[in-house]
Write a sequence for this structure.
DNA sequence: CGGTTCATGTCGCAC
DNA sequence: GTGCGACGTGAACCG
């Protein structure tokens, strides 16, 4: 189920990769390569030693020395390997967009193939998690807050938690699991404005942003729009 | 400069990885592993065959069968390998946050080490590129537009292009290289509001969003705020 | 399939 | 270091 080659040379590396992917395996190549990308933007990398990962879903990743994100990548299209003399080409074409990634190897030091797992993770601590907490303890939003619905639709998009305050006013709550900036404040403002426009003209609508922290610019933005922030956890 | 082992077993794999990283190399492992992450959120993966990439900057990536993004990762902290009997642990601790990733291998099929490149890419077609085009041909924004400054500071953040319209009004331009949604419209609105507040009360301030495309919701949002959209490219 | 939002987003840059 | 916005963002969810 797992195979590998050391210093396979261009031709054997190409055959190895082609065969392995034909068997539904993931392929990993290590070698000297350069990349070019054209489509949504143009980007190219000079020759250098990198690792290429070609997954069963035809995602192709090229990783260099640093960073979480690949130096080059392709996904959602078709992939072809081709050995032309002393160069190995991996050509990736995206069906819909005009995206095209080409990886040109001039040497392959190592090749490996394996059958990778595809399992869903167990997760918690996300925004959905925070929603549970707010529904279990609505006073987090404000004292006396009564939640009515989650993901209530408005013309501006869905409000995370929708309910009524102790004074009967409509309250729209936007939840963020992390420190929030101006974008989150604007998001809440869009929802509140949409509700004010949609509900009866005399309806009182408030907006509360619930998050562990907020930046200063976002705080001012909320204040300028009559919205409030409620820290959590 | 490149090394590899097939079916090294736990102990040899641990020593191999440790040595290679000590020499400043990147390490790639393929084997049966499970992961747990705790910190900004909690997330765990069941045991399965995956590939782990441990980069010279101590970024650790765990990739499964699908997707551009890793199934688990860590970066910006310290990494330690440890072999305890029949299990190999890769423990990653982030210095600042409480982030901690643990990868537990119960088998290692392949190990490879190499000295990866770290080159900056050549890029074009980005937002900076669009700015050049607008400055070269300001009529893209609106007929008679005269750019004055780029990245002009406002209390809400920097305006991409700042200038005057044919009528003498202040014009704030927000550039996007791709299809824009409500967030971009709100961003422009924040800048325009900040300018209206900062400039003389009688100053006429307009806002123009320049992008290849716009969603319907964003278009309505612009209209509701008296802002305009100008398609490009 | 398109639109919108979430993400352990990551990454770069300026203050 | 923090804040802010771009990114070939990717990925899920919902109409």
């Amino acid at each position: 189920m797992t195979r590998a080659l050391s210093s396979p040379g261009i031709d054997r590396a190409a055959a190895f990769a082609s065969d392995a992917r034909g068997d539904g395996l993931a392929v990993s190549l290590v070698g000297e390569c350069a990349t070019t990308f054209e489509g949504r933007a143009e980007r190219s990398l000079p020759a250098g030693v990198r690792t290429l990962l070609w997954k069963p879903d035809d995602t192709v990743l090229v990783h260099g020395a640093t960073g979480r994100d690949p130096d080059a990548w392709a996904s959602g299209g078709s992939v072809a390997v081709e050995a032309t003399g002393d160069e190995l080409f991996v050509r990736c074409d995206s069906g819909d967009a005009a995206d095209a990634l080409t990886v040109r190897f001039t040497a392959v030091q190592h090749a490996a193939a394996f059958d990778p797992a595809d399992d869903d993770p167990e997760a918690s601590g996300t925004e959905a998690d925070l929603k549970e907490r707010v529904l279990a303890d609505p006073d987090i939003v404000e004292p006396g807050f009564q939640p009515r619905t989650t993901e209530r639709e408005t013309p501006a998009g869905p409000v995370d938690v929708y309910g009524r305050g102790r004074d009967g006013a409509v309250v729209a709550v936007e939840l963020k699991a992390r420190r929030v900036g101006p974008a989150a404040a604007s998001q809440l403002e869009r929802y509140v404005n949409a509700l004010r426009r949609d509900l009866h003209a005399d309806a009182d609508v408030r907006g509360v942003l619930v998050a562990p922290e907020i930046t200063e610019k976002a705080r001012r933005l909320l204040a300028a729009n009559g919205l409030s922030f409620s820290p959590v956890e």
In short: Residues 37, 39-43, 69, 72-75, 97, 99, 101, 151, 158, 179, 181-183, 215-217 of chain A lie near DNA strand D (CB under 10 Å from a C1').
